[in-house]
Design goal:
Blueprint: E1 6-12, E2 25-31, E3 36-40, E4 45-50, E5 55-58, E6 65-66, E7 71-74, E8 81-85, E9 88-95, H1 97-104, E10 115-117, H2 119-122, H3 126-135, H4 139-154, H5 161-173, H6 181-188, H7 192-202, H8 207-223, H9 242-253, H10 257-262, H11 266-281, H12 289-292
Antiparallel strand pairs: 1-2, 2-9, 3-8, 4-7, 4-9, 5-6, 5-8, 7-10
Helix pairs in contact: 1-5, 3-4, 8-9
Length: 310
Protein backbone atom coordinates (compact mmCIF):
# COMPACT_ATOMS: atom_id res chain seq x y z
CA UNK A 1 0.00 0.00 0.00
CA UNK A 2 1.28 3.47 -0.92
CA UNK A 3 2.16 5.54 2.13
CA UNK A 4 0.44 8.91 2.44
CA UNK A 5 1.98 11.46 4.82
CA UNK A 6 -0.05 13.23 7.47
CA UNK A 7 -1.20 16.72 6.46
CA UNK A 8 -1.93 19.52 8.91
CA UNK A 9 -3.34 22.89 7.82
CA UNK A 10 -3.25 25.90 10.14
CA UNK A 11 -5.23 28.97 9.06
CA UNK A 12 -4.95 32.50 10.39
CA UNK A 13 -6.34 35.90 9.48
CA UNK A 14 -4.15 38.87 8.62
CA UNK A 15 -4.32 42.24 10.33
CA UNK A 16 -7.80 43.76 10.02
CA UNK A 17 -6.43 46.48 7.71
CA UNK A 18 -5.28 43.84 5.21
CA UNK A 19 -8.39 41.70 4.97
CA UNK A 20 -9.73 43.38 1.85
CA UNK A 21 -6.52 42.29 0.15
CA UNK A 22 -5.35 39.05 1.82
CA UNK A 23 -8.16 36.69 2.88
CA UNK A 24 -5.95 34.34 4.90
CA UNK A 25 -2.52 32.98 5.72
CA UNK A 26 -1.93 29.29 6.33
CA UNK A 27 0.74 26.74 7.10
CA UNK A 28 0.87 23.39 5.34
CA UNK A 29 2.76 20.85 7.44
CA UNK A 30 3.45 17.43 5.91
CA UNK A 31 4.91 14.73 8.15
CA UNK A 32 5.90 11.14 7.49
CA UNK A 33 7.17 9.18 4.50
CA UNK A 34 5.47 9.07 1.14
CA UNK A 35 4.17 11.66 -1.31
CA UNK A 36 1.16 13.96 -1.13
CA UNK A 37 -0.67 14.09 -4.46
CA UNK A 38 -3.62 16.36 -5.13
CA UNK A 39 -5.29 18.46 -7.81
CA UNK A 40 -5.58 22.13 -6.86
CA UNK A 41 -8.57 24.08 -8.10
CA UNK A 42 -8.12 27.14 -10.33
CA UNK A 43 -7.18 29.70 -7.69
CA UNK A 44 -6.59 33.41 -7.33
CA UNK A 45 -3.04 34.59 -6.73
CA UNK A 46 -1.19 32.84 -3.92
CA UNK A 47 2.24 33.41 -2.43
CA UNK A 48 3.92 30.21 -1.26
CA UNK A 49 7.13 29.94 0.76
CA UNK A 50 8.66 26.46 0.90
CA UNK A 51 10.78 26.03 4.02
CA UNK A 52 11.34 22.30 3.61
CA UNK A 53 10.21 19.41 1.43
CA UNK A 54 10.20 18.88 -2.32
CA UNK A 55 7.24 20.17 -4.31
CA UNK A 56 6.29 19.87 -7.98
CA UNK A 57 3.41 21.39 -9.93
CA UNK A 58 1.89 21.03 -13.38
CA UNK A 59 -1.36 21.04 -15.32
CA UNK A 60 -0.74 17.42 -16.38
CA UNK A 61 -0.13 14.65 -13.87
CA UNK A 62 2.67 13.13 -15.95
CA UNK A 63 4.45 16.44 -16.57
CA UNK A 64 5.21 18.03 -13.22
CA UNK A 65 7.97 20.61 -12.79
CA UNK A 66 9.91 20.72 -9.50
CA UNK A 67 9.99 24.11 -7.78
CA UNK A 68 13.39 25.71 -8.19
CA UNK A 69 12.58 28.77 -6.05
CA UNK A 70 11.66 28.63 -2.38
CA UNK A 71 9.46 31.75 -2.56
CA UNK A 72 6.97 31.91 -5.42
CA UNK A 73 3.76 33.45 -6.70
CA UNK A 74 1.16 31.16 -8.18
CA UNK A 75 -0.57 33.46 -10.63
CA UNK A 76 -4.33 33.47 -11.07
CA UNK A 77 -5.37 30.30 -12.89
CA UNK A 78 -8.13 28.82 -14.98
CA UNK A 79 -6.49 25.39 -15.13
CA UNK A 80 -6.32 22.98 -12.22
CA UNK A 81 -2.79 22.23 -11.00
CA UNK A 82 -1.48 18.82 -10.00
CA UNK A 83 0.80 18.95 -6.99
CA UNK A 84 3.24 16.47 -5.47
CA UNK A 85 4.85 17.18 -2.11
CA UNK A 86 7.01 15.45 0.47
CA UNK A 87 7.54 15.91 4.19
CA UNK A 88 8.10 19.56 5.00
CA UNK A 89 6.49 22.94 5.69
CA UNK A 90 5.01 25.64 3.43
CA UNK A 91 3.62 29.07 4.36
CA UNK A 92 0.95 30.54 2.08
CA UNK A 93 -0.91 33.81 1.58
CA UNK A 94 -3.84 34.21 -0.81
CA UNK A 95 -4.11 37.51 -2.69
CA UNK A 96 -7.42 38.95 -3.89
CA UNK A 97 -7.45 41.11 -7.06
CA UNK A 98 -7.94 44.10 -4.74
CA UNK A 99 -4.76 43.00 -3.02
CA UNK A 100 -2.94 42.70 -6.31
CA UNK A 101 -3.78 46.33 -7.01
CA UNK A 102 -2.89 47.78 -3.60
CA UNK A 103 -0.03 45.51 -2.47
CA UNK A 104 1.71 44.38 -5.65
CA UNK A 105 0.65 46.23 -8.78
CA UNK A 106 1.61 45.70 -12.39
CA UNK A 107 -0.02 43.54 -15.04
CA UNK A 108 -1.56 40.43 -13.43
CA UNK A 109 -1.85 38.70 -16.81
CA UNK A 110 1.95 38.44 -17.01
CA UNK A 111 1.82 35.96 -14.11
CA UNK A 112 -1.48 34.19 -14.91
CA UNK A 113 -1.34 30.42 -15.39
CA UNK A 114 2.28 30.30 -14.26
CA UNK A 115 4.64 30.19 -11.30
CA UNK A 116 6.94 33.19 -10.83
CA UNK A 117 9.73 33.77 -8.31
CA UNK A 118 8.73 36.21 -5.59
CA UNK A 119 11.64 38.42 -6.63
CA UNK A 120 9.73 39.14 -9.85
CA UNK A 121 7.15 40.94 -7.68
CA UNK A 122 9.13 42.42 -4.83
CA UNK A 123 12.67 42.68 -6.22
CA UNK A 124 15.36 42.90 -3.56
CA UNK A 125 12.69 42.92 -0.82
CA UNK A 126 11.77 39.28 -1.56
CA UNK A 127 14.76 37.69 0.19
CA UNK A 128 14.39 39.62 3.47
CA UNK A 129 10.66 38.82 3.51
CA UNK A 130 11.36 35.11 3.05
CA UNK A 131 14.08 35.16 5.71
CA UNK A 132 11.86 36.96 8.23
CA UNK A 133 9.00 34.50 7.78
CA UNK A 134 11.23 31.42 7.66
CA UNK A 135 13.01 32.37 10.88
CA UNK A 136 9.76 33.00 12.77
CA UNK A 137 9.21 30.36 15.43
CA UNK A 138 5.41 30.11 15.25
CA UNK A 139 2.46 30.80 12.98
CA UNK A 140 1.68 33.94 14.99
CA UNK A 141 5.23 35.18 14.40
CA UNK A 142 4.99 34.40 10.69
CA UNK A 143 1.73 36.34 10.50
CA UNK A 144 3.33 39.30 12.28
CA UNK A 145 6.25 39.32 9.83
CA UNK A 146 3.97 39.07 6.80
CA UNK A 147 1.57 41.71 8.16
CA UNK A 148 4.44 44.15 8.77
CA UNK A 149 5.67 43.73 5.19
CA UNK A 150 2.26 44.17 3.57
CA UNK A 151 1.19 47.04 5.82
CA UNK A 152 4.35 48.88 4.76
CA UNK A 153 3.37 48.38 1.12
CA UNK A 154 -0.23 49.35 1.77
CA UNK A 155 0.91 52.62 3.34
CA UNK A 156 2.46 53.58 0.00
CA UNK A 157 -0.92 53.50 -1.80
CA UNK A 158 -4.35 55.01 -1.36
CA UNK A 159 -7.83 53.86 -2.27
CA UNK A 160 -8.67 55.19 -5.72
CA UNK A 161 -11.20 54.94 -8.51
CA UNK A 162 -9.46 51.73 -9.59
CA UNK A 163 -10.49 50.18 -6.27
CA UNK A 164 -14.11 51.07 -7.02
CA UNK A 165 -13.91 49.42 -10.44
CA UNK A 166 -12.30 46.28 -9.00
CA UNK A 167 -15.18 46.16 -6.52
CA UNK A 168 -17.77 46.44 -9.30
CA UNK A 169 -16.13 43.73 -11.40
CA UNK A 170 -15.75 41.41 -8.38
CA UNK A 171 -19.40 41.74 -7.41
CA UNK A 172 -20.63 41.40 -10.99
CA UNK A 173 -18.74 38.21 -11.86
CA UNK A 174 -19.99 36.61 -8.63
CA UNK A 175 -23.61 37.20 -9.73
CA UNK A 176 -25.05 34.34 -11.84
CA UNK A 177 -27.22 36.91 -13.60
CA UNK A 178 -24.13 38.57 -15.06
CA UNK A 179 -23.48 36.13 -17.90
CA UNK A 180 -22.03 38.23 -20.72
CA UNK A 181 -19.26 40.71 -21.35
CA UNK A 182 -21.92 43.21 -22.38
CA UNK A 183 -23.68 42.91 -19.02
CA UNK A 184 -20.38 43.14 -17.14
CA UNK A 185 -19.39 46.30 -19.01
CA UNK A 186 -22.80 47.83 -18.28
CA UNK A 187 -22.59 47.09 -14.57
CA UNK A 188 -19.05 48.38 -14.21
CA UNK A 189 -19.64 51.45 -16.35
CA UNK A 190 -16.93 50.90 -18.96
CA UNK A 191 -16.85 50.25 -22.67
CA UNK A 192 -16.17 46.64 -23.65
CA UNK A 193 -12.72 47.48 -24.98
CA UNK A 194 -11.79 49.34 -21.82
CA UNK A 195 -13.04 46.63 -19.47
CA UNK A 196 -11.03 44.08 -21.45
CA UNK A 197 -7.85 46.02 -20.73
CA UNK A 198 -8.89 46.55 -17.11
CA UNK A 199 -9.69 42.93 -16.20
CA UNK A 200 -6.59 41.65 -17.98
CA UNK A 201 -4.38 43.95 -15.91
CA UNK A 202 -6.07 43.64 -12.51
CA UNK A 203 -7.67 40.17 -12.63
CA UNK A 204 -5.32 38.40 -15.04
CA UNK A 205 -7.83 37.49 -17.76
CA UNK A 206 -10.13 38.97 -20.37
CA UNK A 207 -13.76 39.40 -19.26
CA UNK A 208 -15.22 36.35 -21.04
CA UNK A 209 -12.77 33.95 -19.42
CA UNK A 210 -13.25 35.67 -16.06
CA UNK A 211 -17.03 35.15 -16.21
CA UNK A 212 -16.67 31.52 -17.30
CA UNK A 213 -14.16 30.83 -14.51
CA UNK A 214 -16.43 32.35 -11.85
CA UNK A 215 -19.39 30.34 -13.15
CA UNK A 216 -17.40 27.12 -12.95
CA UNK A 217 -16.06 27.77 -9.44
CA UNK A 218 -19.58 28.50 -8.17
CA UNK A 219 -20.70 25.18 -9.61
CA UNK A 220 -17.71 23.25 -8.27
CA UNK A 221 -18.38 24.57 -4.77
CA UNK A 222 -22.07 23.67 -4.98
CA UNK A 223 -21.30 20.12 -6.14
CA UNK A 224 -19.03 19.26 -3.19
CA UNK A 225 -20.54 16.47 -1.13
CA UNK A 226 -23.49 15.87 -3.46
CA UNK A 227 -24.38 12.63 -5.20
CA UNK A 228 -24.37 12.49 -9.01
CA UNK A 229 -28.15 12.43 -9.01
CA UNK A 230 -28.29 15.76 -7.18
CA UNK A 231 -26.00 17.69 -9.54
CA UNK A 232 -28.71 18.78 -12.02
CA UNK A 233 -30.60 20.49 -9.19
CA UNK A 234 -27.62 22.73 -8.46
CA UNK A 235 -26.76 23.82 -12.00
CA UNK A 236 -25.68 27.43 -12.15
CA UNK A 237 -28.19 29.55 -14.12
CA UNK A 238 -25.48 30.22 -16.71
CA UNK A 239 -25.34 26.53 -17.69
CA UNK A 240 -27.73 25.39 -20.41
CA UNK A 241 -27.78 21.80 -19.15
CA UNK A 242 -25.69 19.14 -17.39
CA UNK A 243 -23.65 18.34 -20.52
CA UNK A 244 -22.65 22.01 -20.70
CA UNK A 245 -21.43 21.82 -17.10
CA UNK A 246 -19.49 18.61 -17.78
CA UNK A 247 -17.72 20.22 -20.76
CA UNK A 248 -16.66 23.10 -18.50
CA UNK A 249 -15.52 20.63 -15.85
CA UNK A 250 -13.20 18.92 -18.30
CA UNK A 251 -11.99 22.30 -19.58
CA UNK A 252 -11.04 23.69 -16.15
CA UNK A 253 -10.17 20.52 -14.23
CA UNK A 254 -9.10 18.13 -16.97
CA UNK A 255 -11.34 15.37 -15.59
CA UNK A 256 -15.03 14.55 -15.63
CA UNK A 257 -16.97 15.36 -12.43
CA UNK A 258 -17.23 11.65 -11.62
CA UNK A 259 -13.47 11.17 -11.97
CA UNK A 260 -12.69 14.26 -9.91
CA UNK A 261 -14.98 13.50 -6.99
CA UNK A 262 -13.80 9.87 -6.89
CA UNK A 263 -10.21 11.05 -6.30
CA UNK A 264 -8.41 11.10 -3.01
CA UNK A 265 -7.80 14.82 -2.41
CA UNK A 266 -5.76 14.93 0.80
CA UNK A 267 -4.80 18.62 0.72
CA UNK A 268 -8.33 19.81 -0.04
CA UNK A 269 -9.76 17.41 2.54
CA UNK A 270 -7.37 18.79 5.16
CA UNK A 271 -8.40 22.36 4.26
CA UNK A 272 -12.12 21.59 4.61
CA UNK A 273 -11.59 19.65 7.82
CA UNK A 274 -9.63 22.52 9.36
CA UNK A 275 -12.17 25.15 8.28
CA UNK A 276 -15.15 23.18 9.52
CA UNK A 277 -13.47 22.41 12.85
CA UNK A 278 -12.63 26.09 13.31
CA UNK A 279 -16.14 27.21 12.43
CA UNK A 280 -17.66 24.66 14.81
CA UNK A 281 -15.38 25.69 17.67
CA UNK A 282 -15.81 29.40 16.99
CA UNK A 283 -12.08 29.85 16.43
CA UNK A 284 -12.43 30.67 12.71
CA UNK A 285 -13.85 34.17 13.17
CA UNK A 286 -14.10 35.85 9.78
CA UNK A 287 -13.32 32.65 7.84
CA UNK A 288 -16.49 30.88 6.79
CA UNK A 289 -16.78 27.91 4.47
CA UNK A 290 -18.31 30.28 1.91
CA UNK A 291 -15.32 32.61 2.05
CA UNK A 292 -12.99 29.64 1.79
CA UNK A 293 -14.10 28.98 -1.78
CA UNK A 294 -12.66 32.33 -2.95
CA UNK A 295 -15.24 32.71 -5.71
CA UNK A 296 -16.24 36.26 -4.84
CA UNK A 297 -12.59 37.21 -4.40
CA UNK A 298 -13.68 40.40 -2.73
CA UNK A 299 -13.99 42.15 0.59
CA UNK A 300 -14.67 45.87 0.56
CA UNK A 301 -11.67 48.17 0.78
CA UNK A 302 -13.00 50.59 3.36
CA UNK A 303 -9.81 52.62 3.71
CA UNK A 304 -10.55 56.23 2.80
CA UNK A 305 -7.19 57.69 3.71
CA UNK A 306 -3.61 56.58 3.69
CA UNK A 307 -3.00 53.67 6.08
CA UNK A 308 -1.50 54.83 9.35
CA UNK A 309 0.95 52.41 10.90
CA UNK A 310 1.14 52.02 14.68
Amino acid sequence: MTQVPHIEIRFALPDERLRAFIPAYWDIIVTGPGVVEDLLRPEWMAIRMVFSGKWSFGTHKAQLSPLTDKAILHGVATQAQWVHGTEGKVFCAAIFPMGWHRLIGGDASIHSEKISPLSALFGEDADPLFAAIESAGSLDARIAAADAFFLDRLALTERSEISDWIERVSLAIADPECATVEELALRVGMSQSRIARFTKRHFGFLPKKLIQRARFLRMLHSMEGLSVGQWPHFLDPQYADQSHMIRDFKKFIGLSPTQYFAMERPLLAAVFQTLMAGIKSGEAEGMSFEEGRQVLAFRPDTAKDEVMLP
